[in-house]
Structures are given as structure tokens and as C-alpha cells.
Amino acid sequence: MKDFFKNNKKRILKILAVIAIIMIAATVWYEIPVTEHITISGEGKIDYPIRFALVTDLHSCYYGKNQSQLIKMIDKEKPDAILMSGDIFDDRLGQKNARIFIEGVADRYPCFYVTGNHEFWSKKEDEVKEFLKSKGVTVLEGNARDININGNDIDICGVDDPTYMAESKWLERLDGADRESSPEKYRVLLSHRPEKVEAYENYDFDLILCGHAHGGQWRIPFTKRGVAAPNQGLFPAYVDGLYDLDNGSEMIVSRGLARERMPYPRFFNHPEVVIIDIG
Questions:
Q1: How far apart are CA 173 and CA 193, in angstroms?
Q2: Do 7 and 138 lie in a common domain?
Q3: S-S: 229 plus which of 138, 171, 206, 236, CB 3.0-4.6 Å?
Q4: Which distant-in-sequence residues (6+ apart) come within 8 Å of 75 by Cβ?
Q5: How many whole angstroms from its chain centre is CA 252?
């Protein structure tokens, strides 16, 4: 074996160099953000088409000067509103990039937000909420807000992340969002956690929007399955795209936008903004 390596040293080094180049190229490629389009029915409650941009798990990551790369991606799609399902801010990276993003979109689009676990881990969730409110973002904490988009009456509902909250308390927030919204309207629920399917199935929200799973971090090629996700473990069930729940609700899970925040790359798993067309 020693003689083999000695006699083939140059060839082995070339092979290793090629592998390294491929790995570096793949790492760079899969850090490039994309827009994913999902089209769903309005369940008979939507008369005129609506477009939402779902933005999750930014983790205050950098997307060009003044977050221009991310903002241009959204502007190109011309959404009617931006819905943020948590972890826009981070507990380790500073708030700068997240604040720049908010300042870049909040005066041009109706924006709705719920917390993720990292906002709570930062111990600055109140500061974050006050900043968002000062910019005109609707912060949802177990309640709902009605909005008319293109002639459609819609309730946007939302719950805080349950990081430091007893399950019973979180369910009370979910009850509150349900009470403040009307089943006669199209109802969208913002919630960070996709693994809470059993709880969501006790209600009749039309659409539930989540993040948190980061696409399973390493996505299995040619599938919508990931390798691991927080609170779901290995080969998690809910990481990417559209899911039909047993109660008739639809749930969309975004792979999110975290990049430099993560200690390992996102193989086969581009960061994303999800564009949702309802009509």
C-alpha cells in the first residue's frame, strides 16, 4: 500500500485537488439565493389573484450592499405583501443586516412578522419588535390583522415562537389568532415551527407559513427531503415546499436565507424567497 501511494502520488494529489475544487464550487453555487414559486387555490375565498413573498430565517445574513441582492429579488416578483415567519434577526450576528432589509422593504410593502427562536435566544425580542413596529411592520403575537388585497379580504394571523413558552401558553396564542380571525375570510397563519402540524390540524387556517428547518441543511438531491432539522431530527418530514395537512389546511415551509450564520454549507439547498400565488 505504501508503494502504491508513493508510485501514484501525483495522480492522487490531482484527484484530491479536483475533488476539492468541486466541493468549493458546489459550496459557492448552493449559497446563491433563488426564488421558488408555489401556486395554490384560494379555497373559494379569493376572487382576484394575490401574491405573497415568504421571507424566513434571514438570521441577519449579508445579501449585498444595503441588502440589495435580496431586495431586488423581491422587487422583481412584485408581491402584494411580505410575510416573515421568524428568525429574521439572530442571536450571534448583529442586527445591522436585518435592520437594513426591513428599512428597505417596509415602506413599500405591507409587512407582517412573527418571532423565531433566535430572536428569543438573543434576549432582544422586545427591542426587535419595537424596531419593527416603528417601521410600520405588523408584529403578530397570538392575534390577527385584516387586510384587503386586490379586493380580497384576508386575515393574517401569527404566533410567537414557543422557545421559552409552555406548550399550553403557546396554544393559547394559537387560540387567540384563531378567535381574532374569521373563517369566512382566507386565513393565513405565520408560525416559525413546521413540526407543530398536530396543533395546526386542530384549526382551519387556510394556509400556514413556516421556516426554521433550513431545508434540512443538506438536501437529498432530486427530493424535497433534508438530512436534519431542528426539533425534527434526522430525515425530517417538513422542510421544503407545500404540504397538505389532514384537516384540509395547506402548509408551506421555506428553506430560508441563512448563509454565513451556519457552521456548514447548504449542499443541494439554495437559500430562497418563496413566492406564493393564490387565486
A1: 14
A2: no
A3: 236
A4: none
A5: 9
Contact residues for 182 (Cβ-Cβ < 8 A; gap 6+): 155
Predicted confidence band of residue 8 (pLDDT cuts 50, 70, 90): low
Q: Model confidence over 128-143: pLDDT tens digits?
A: 999 999 999 999 999 9
Pair 20, 127 in one domain? no
Question: What confidence tens digit (pLDDT) does each residue in 166-192 have?
Answer: 999 999 999 999 999 999 999 999 999
Residue with cell 430562497: 272
Round to whole Å and give the CA distance between 271 and 227.
16
Using a CB cutoff of 8 Å and minimum separation of 24, what contacts does 135-140 make? Answer: 135/102, 135/103, 135/106, 135/107, 136/106, 136/107, 136/111, 137/84, 137/102, 137/106, 137/111, 137/112, 137/113, 138/110, 138/111, 138/112, 138/113, 139/113, 139/114, 140/112, 140/113, 140/114, 140/177, 140/190
Contact 194, 253 (CB under 8 A): yes
Is pTM beyond 0.70? Reply is yes
The one-letter amino acid code at 123 reads K
State the average pLDDT over residues 250-278. Answer: 91
Q: How many domains does the chain have?
A: 2
**Do 102 and 222 lie in a common domain?**
yes
Cα four-point dihedral sign 174, 176, 182, 183: positive
Which residues fall within 8 angstroms of residue 241, CB to CB, at 6 or more apart?
Answer: 36, 38, 224, 252, 253
Domain of residue 219, residue span: 35-278
Instruction: Say whether both 15 and 111 belong to one domain.
Output: no
**The amino acid at 166:** A
